[in-house]
Amino acid sequence: MTDHLDYEIRSITVIGAGAMGHGIAHVAAAAGYDVCLTDVSQAALDHALERVRDNLDRGIAKGKVTERERDDTLGHLHGEPDLRVAASAADLVIEAVPEQVDLKRAVFATAAETAPEHAIFATNTSSIPLAQLVGAVPRPAQFVGLHFFNPVHLQPLLEIVRAGATGEDTLQRALQFATRVGKDPIVVRDVAGFASSRLGIALGLEAIRMVEEGVASAADIDKAMELGYRHPMGPLKLTDLVGLDVRLAIAQTLAREIDPVRFAPPRLLVELVAAGKLGKKSGEGFYLY
Q1: Could you count the other beta carbons within 10 Å of the beta carbon of residue 258?
Q2: What's 284's DSSP letter?
Q3: Is 156 within 8 Å of 27 (Cβ atoms)?
């Protein structure tokens, strides 16, 4: 017997106004959902909304977005710094805060205080097992993973993670949501790193070790994968785009949950993060920006 929730997703709350959060809010609003983006920092919210506008304006300049589509998207999107207020009318709550179990559990617990009983809770975690998060919400059958990729408004993949308790109705609504926001979904079971992060981090960590060992320059390692294996972006450029701190957090999670040898973070990665060289967002990682 499957669960059945008699409602349609119309209103979405996105928690976290960083790179992933503002991107998720962008694609959801562009698909016609009413979207509330929430963050503890009003400045972060203002910056996120401006980034959405900038991305839409770039789309207009490239002929991929019309002015009306931009205005409609922005009309469906607003910011709210109070999480309890933001979640109070949500049919779907999507968490996109940093990769910290305690933080994710805390924001889910707070959102659950005011969210409607029918609301689905989704996490954008790229590596943390959902089993470690689901206990923060009152109805585990309404919990699912929605792992987007950066930049969200351009990347077509959406990895849907089905936790042990995720209901069939919740899964089907997640698939419908993926289609409506223009993503091509895959469904994976709840294992640390899922499918995409586990494979991606393995390649990325080995590329970092190769730089560390002096096998080749970062640029030449990336060129090898781009030209030799037809990857659209080399693993070190991708690490800079994702964020070295994010990659480190994923590696630490997989080392803890799967194998401490295979996924041990390279010394170079740890040192760069400690030095604040986080990639594109900080201006320097394996490349200068």
Answers
A1: 15
A2: B
A3: no
DSSP characters over 134-166 = GGGSS-GGGEEEEE--SSTTT--EEEEEE-TT-
20 within 8 A of 152, measured Cβ to Cβ:
yes
**What is the residue whose two structure tokens read 């349609």?**
8
Does the bond joining 140 to the residue before it have cis omega, within 30 degrees of 0?
no
> Nearest to residue 251, comparing CAs of 207, 281, 284?
207
CB 269 within 8 A of CB 251: yes
Please tell me the pTM assigned to this model: 0.88
- For residue 76, give the DSSP letter: T
- Token code pair at residue 206: 């080995």
Q: Are strands 157-162 and 143-147 parallel, antiparallel or unpaired?
A: antiparallel
Helix, coil or strand: residue 129: coil
What is the per-residue pLDDT for 7? Answer: 72
Q: What is the pLDDT of residue 109?
A: 98
Which residues have C-beta within 8 Å of that of residue 127, sequence separation ≥ 6? 99, 192, 193, 194, 197, 198, 201, 249, 250, 253, 254
| Residue segments in the chain with a per-residue pLDDT below the cut of 70 | 1-6
Predicted local confidence at residue 2, as pLDDT = 40
Bridge partners of 188? 161
**Residues recorded for the chain:** 289
Q: What are phi and psi of 157, to 5 degrees?
A: -85, 140
Pairing of strands 143-147, 120-123: parallel
Domains detected in the chain? 11-189 (3.40.50.720), 197-274 (1.10.1040.10)
The pLDDT assigned to 1 comes to 35
Of the CA atoms within 13 Å of residue 134, those in its CB half-sphere come to 18
pLDDT given for residue 5 in this prediction: 54
